[in-house]
């Protein structure tokens, strides 16, 4: 134990970190709580001398708000679709990468590239790929030709072109594009983690399995996946947390309208809602929405961990 | 079932493209393992024991040579079709499965005609578990077991399929001295009970000597000598084998043969027939010395360690290649600890003479 007389020294040495934490983490959290529970709070009005009563009005407003429900639906839908798909794909790719010899290094780099690329830039490329026509803002008599590479491919195979993201597109088409984009964006990190996990599995387990005459599919299901379960749990939990904070990817594809030009805000997410409320100087409402988001993430993570405890083997 | 190794060779190509230093891990290994015996594969670290075992298991392909199980050529046969049980150096128990699941695992992999019912599998698993006395631990995970218990689980997992051959790679290396003694007896018992041809790898000569029917001594990928433990101990073919077997280790000296006499330093310790004059290395087992007031071999007495039935006499001699000479003498013989010197006569069958260059044994008759 540290001598009592020495304790002030310990505090002194810790103080830079503590002060930074207090200013940039603890105070914002407290302030968020305060703003959320003051009726109709607005920082501008407060500076002007207004006072606010304590209450849960901000929360009620947020929940009643149709836009918020839409945001919540989008967020949850994207989470539920993208996390399993990306985890499964990442697992398969990682296993494949781990089993090939020659081009491993190059392929690893290729799969890792999206991770170091700006996601807005990736979004713009995706937007161009899924474009139905040559221009975002094309009018009826301006452009006729299909420009997006995806629609080119569809038409090449004799399919009907789909309006993915432009004016007049359907909700499910928008969501499909978002799922593809988010999954693609999430893959590198997951592959990296899972590949690391795979490479740390003792090769002798595989030798033992071979001696025991185990088929490939059984090796995968009974040995690889269980031994990888800590990494899988990690990837899934962080995937859900990231998914609930989805925002940039929507901006990447649809711009700040958060939806096709004729339906702005249709793909908005919970984080997007918070930003919007802040922009409109409704800090109270923004804080309340942020807290709701926080509670949802907390619950989902707890559920994940409880489920994980049962399936993570050691 | 008997196992035949025919000119078995394994060469690992060099990693580094610039230097062409390939490793000959196993060099032209010829051996016929008799049916139902326990073979101890013995040698220092890196001599190719594991590689030999992995080739037997099929996990590694030989560079050249053939392997026969019975009359079948299995050289090209895949591991899973060889019907072997393998216990790895560090057991490789599946950490996420219970003991029971670990033991059941090989059975659940069986396909087609060999496929078993659940009851049959459980019966077999419990039989194997009983054999190694772990049937009370069936619901534990490997990390809840002691090293010795883990090792027994590994043996049960290897045995449960009733393999044609059981391969054990230094299975005792992680155990403490006591457990090691106990488990090696157990391996011997299980092997006798099941009658499965077994190859047991170890670098501990005592371990190999104590439980094997036959030992194979290897050095740098080359087999030095094969035989019953006692035979190899009593009749080493070269200096390496003589040095490798026995605790305390053999005493080695610089010496020469001249005019029908074997000299250690200046002391003529033995008269021999039919031996050409030459410089030699002489090995004498610790039990090969007799205390003898008129003995030909003079040493400087350092100290005497009493070990109950025997005493260990520590002495020095200028010709000794070891720092000290250690001799084991029946404690009925009183050693004069006051004296500065001690004199020995040498038991002829405990003394081996080797060529100084080749280190091969020189055989001769004692007069
Ligand atoms: N995959 C490999 N690539 C290259 N060289 C190898 C490989 N495996 C083993 N060797 C070399 O082959 C030789 C024999 O190795 P092996 O593992 O058979 O030794 P061992 O007798 O089992 O030793 P130990 O008692 O330390 O386990 C060693 O020199 C080792 O460096
Ligand atoms: Mg080895």
Structure description:
The complex is a heterodimer of chains A (314) and B (367). With 314 residues, chain A is an all-alpha fold. Chain A folds into three domains: 1-36, no CATH class; 62-124 and 171-308, MetI-like fold; 132-165, no CATH class. Helices cover 70% and strands 0% of the residues of chain A. Chain A has helices spanning 7-36, 43-47, 57-64, 66-99, 104-112, 119-130, 149-156, 171-199, 203-211, 216-244, 248-254, 270-279, 283-311. In chain A, helix 4 packs parallel to helix 8, helix 8 crosses helix 10 (216-244) and helix 12 (270-279) packs antiparallel against helix 13 (283-311). Chain A is globular, with a radius of gyration of 25 Å. Chain B is α+β, with helices and mostly antiparallel strands and 367 residues long. In chain B, 23% of the residues lie in helices and 35% in strands. In chain B, the strands form four sheets. Chain B has a seven-stranded antiparallel sheet. A six-stranded mixed sheet of chain B has the order 6-7-8-3-9-10, with helices on both faces. In chain B, helix 5 links the parallel strand 7 and strand 8 (197-202). In chain B, helix 3 packs across helix 4 (147-159). The two termini of chain B are 46 Å apart. Chain A binds chain B through residues 202, 204-205, 207-208, 210-215, 218, 222-223, 226-227, 229, 313-314, and chain B through 57, 59, 79-81, 84-86, 88, 90, 92, 94-97, 105-106, 109-111, 141, 143, 157-158, 161. The structure holds adenosine-5'-triphosphate and magnesium ion. The site of adenosine-5'-triphosphate has 12 residues of chain B, from strand 2 and helix 1.
Q: How many H/I helices of chain B?
A: 8
| Most extensive interface, chain pair and sizes | A-B, 19 and 25 residues
Mean pLDDT of chain A: 86
Q: Kindly state the number of beta strands of chain A.
A: 0
Point out poorly predicted stretches of chain A.
Answer: none
Beta content of chain B: 35-45%
* Integer count of domains of chain B: 2
Strand-residue proportion of chain A: under 5%
Which oligomerization state do the chains in this entry correspond to?
A: heterodimer
CATH topology of the largest domain in chain B: Rossmann fold
